[in-house]
Amino acid sequence: VLLSPFGAQKPLLHFQRAKLLLEGELTSPDRADLLHSIVRPTAFFKSLSMQVGKVQRGSPFILFQRDDGSCMRSNPISGVDLAKYMVDCFNDVGRQNAVLDIGGPHEPISMKRQRELIFE
């Protein structure tokens, strides 16, 4: 089970490119006998909470925008829920040899709205 970033199919950062290369290795026809699950969470609550601390210390809030200028939306997932989902990949045949995008249980919110909530 590989944890990969949501949006890895359009990598902007070095670690995204590295994950995409690893995904390519896992999904290669040469490795057809290797069972795998590639899990791509939209966002982690942990990473958002780390950003809150940085903002409180004076760092800027980082917004990711689409090419058209609109704000990205996500529905963060807790680390516990993500870990459970990943462990369940071992037993769920429907999750094998698949790329699985996953988010939290709530409706997605924009990064702009996330910023507003942090500053409230």
TrEMBL record:
It comes from the Eukaryota. GO terms for molecular function: oxidoreductase activity. Keywords: Oxidoreductase. InterPro entries: DVR-like. This is Uncharacterized protein. It comes from Pinguiococcus pyrenoidosus.
